[in-house]
Amino acid sequence: MAQKPQxxxxxxxxxxxxxxxxxxxxxxxxxxLPDYHLSELGLKMAERVADHLAxxxxxxxxxxPLERAQETAAPIAGRHSLEIATDDRLIExxxxxxxxxxxxxxxxxxxxxxWKHLTNPFKPSWGEPYIEQVVRMMGAxxxxxxxxxxxxxxxxxxxxxxWVTRSFVERRRLWHDPRNRQCSLASLxxxxxxxxxxxxxxxxxxxxxxxxAKLAGKKQNKSFGA
Length: 226
What we know:
Elements: E1 11-18, H1 40-53, E2 58-63, H2 67-79, E3 84-86, H3 130-147, E4 152-157, H4 159-169, E5 188-194, E6 197-204, H5 213-216
Parallel strand pairs: 1-4, 2-3, 2-4
Antiparallel strand pairs: 1-5, 5-6
Helix pairs in contact: 1-2, 3-4
């Protein structure tokens, strides 16, 4: 039997968005900690992406439960008169160094007791395994796709889960050099589905001109996600 041709109704677009800049004057690895909110610049980034997506066919907006992600999602949902759904699967990766600073001279690496957590970068040994992040993120993407069938959805999440999900879809290894992640603040990693199958992945930075100068000229990176 001949296969039924695809129609426009079979195409769904899911934008996986990283939140904007966070107010974090002490340089803490905040991870899943509560009460870390967008900075003034982060709020501007969220508004910029909302403007960028204002003319798109967005019918579903869903966010990580963390405040910085919810605040990033708010203007996008507002432009489209939508409520923000929450999906716990979009949350930041779990990290043993949460709540600490990280570095050799003045951070967690000064403590030999922490070195045992750095033994296996392929898993990684300091936090949630990469493959577990992929499983939950792919589930969240699938749920967003189903909620926006034939239209577009926005899922607001965090750098590391977004990057390993893209790496999985593009069939790259999950372990990586954090400095090489292509996932800047307020960026969009866009998955196009035909039916239930991802057929393309795109990347854009609608708020690139708002990135701090030290980040604008290179790939955004944080050693353990953001």
